[in-house]
Amino acid sequence: MEDPESAGAAPPPGLSSLLPPREFLRSRKGQLLLAESVLSFIIFICYIASLAASFMMAPLLEFLLALFLFFAYASKLNEKFKGVHWPLADFLRCVTAAIIYFAISIAAVSKYSDGASKAAGVFGFAATIVFAIDFYITFNELVTFLKQGSSDSPEGRKTEDEDSDSDSD
To answer: Where is this region: Disordered (predicted)?
Structure first.
């Protein structure tokens, strides 16, 4: 017979503890990071199988960076490590990835004639779009953050100026 206490208990943590929470997977940032990771890995495999194997380092690095940020955001490392300005780092990663993917995709499609290079180029153009969407969204968040910061600073300056004026009297 089954113990009644174990029937209602959650299963012991195993590999499921390594998976990100469902809320993050359903968020826009989680879906974009997952798409970036998957596309970068597919492009990496395509470049390995192609004549354009010299381009394989860029998708590998982007895959590792997207995977790191995916798990960093999923495990809320961005809230624990305040010394890193996470949105700015993510924005710079997305901008550089979009530019690099666009450039190597054009080179792979136009210069090489094998199917794997063409597939890597097509997936590279798709990755360019995904990274561009991500950096557009991240840019809007950065602008909102900077506007909030700039609206706070003039008030702080006014109080400091008033304090220094009253001290000089």
So the answer is: 149-169
Query: Would 49 be classed as within a structural domain?
Result: yes
In a domain, 112, yes or no: yes
pTM to 2 decimal places = 0.74
Q: Are 49 and 116 in contact (CB under 8 A)?
A: yes
Give the whole-angstrom CA distance, residue 118 versus residue 108: 6
- CA 129, 130, 131, 133 dihedral sign is positive
Give the model confidence (pLDDT) of 44-56 as tens digits: 999 999 988 889 9
| AA identity, residue 166 | S
Exposed/middle/buried for residue 131 (C-beta within 10 Å: 0-12, 13-18, 19+): buried
Domain count, the chain: 1
Average pLDDT over residues 128-156: 80
Secondary structure of residue 167 in the 3-state scheme: helix
In a domain, 46, yes or no: yes
Q: Which domain holds residue 67?
A: 22-147
Distance CA 124, CA 60 (A): 13
